[in-house]
Amino acid sequence: MTEQVRVAVVQVEPKWLDLAAGVDQVVGLIADAAAGGARLVAFPETFLPGYPWWIWLGSPAWGMQFVPRYAQNSMTRDGAEMTRIAAAAAEHGVHVVLGFSENDGGSLYMAQAFIDDTGRVISVRRKLKPTHVERSVFGEGDGSDLQVHETSIGRIGGLNCWEHFQPLTKYTMYSLGEQIHVGSWPSFSVYRGGAQALGPEVNTAASLVYAVEGQTFVLAPCGVVGEAAQAVFCDDDVKKQLLLRGGGFARVYGPEGSELATPLAETEEGLLFADLDFSLIAIAKSAADPVGHYSRPDVFRLHVNLGANPRIVHGSARQPEPEFEAVELVADGA
Known about the structure:
single chain; 334 residues; 7-stranded mixed beta sheet; 26% helix; globular
C-alpha cells in the first residue's frame, strides 16, 4: 500500500431503468476517473439501473408498473454486464466499488461490488436491512455482507445509505480495520423540506461522523435527480414536488474530519477527486480509537455473526443445520 492514493467519487444521474445504457455510462466514468489519475472510483447506491424512486411517490398499486422493468434491468453479480465492467477496471488499472440492484433468481438486493485494478471481482455485498419502503423491492443481506477487503491501495469496505445509522453495523466495520470506506447514497431529493432525516444535512453528517468514529477515509458518492428522472417517475406536478431535481451531495472526508474535495453544486454532474494521505489515519487513531485504546471492553462487548445464512442447504441425505460463524468482537480488538 502506498502512503497516498488518489480517488474519484461519482455525482452523476443514472440511466434510469436502462441497464445497457447504464453499463456504458459506468465504463465511461471508470475511464474518466483513470484519466484524472484516480486509482479507485466509487459509485452511488443502486447506480445500476438507478434508485427506484417510485416507492416514495405513490401507492404500491401505482408503483407496480415499474416492477417488471426494474427487475429486467437489475444485473446479476456474475453476468455479462459485470464482466464488461470488470474488464474496464482492468483496462484502466482502477479499483471500482459499484452500487447496483442485484437480481438473484428473481429476488433483488441492494448490492455493492468490489472490483480490483486487475479486473477481479473481489466480492459482492448486500445491504443488511433495506430502509422503510425499500423493503417492498429489496431483500436483505446477512452477516457475511459485513466485509473489508485487503487491496494494493489499502483496506476497503462499504455500506449503503442508512446502514450508516446502524451503530452495531458501524462498530463491526470499524473493528475490521477499514482505511477507505465507500458510503454510497442514492440522492437527497425526496421530500425536501418535509422530512429532515432524508435530507442532505443529516446524511452528509452521517458520512462525516463515520469518518471520525472509524478513523477512516469516507468516499460518499451520491446520485443526481434530473429531468430524466422526473420524466420516468413523475406523472404529475405533485410527484415532481416530492422528487425535486438535484440532490447530488457527494463528499470525501478524512479520518480526522477534514473535507478533502470541493463539492459540486447539487444539480451538477461530475467526479470529485481527492488525494488520501494515510498518515492522517495514525494521527486520528492516536486521539480516539473506539475499537482500540478508546474502548472499555470490561463494560461493552459486541458479539457478531459474520457467517452466511443460506436459505437452502443441498445434500444427498439429511444434513445437520449449518453452524453459524459466530465471531466475538471486543472493543480492544482481541
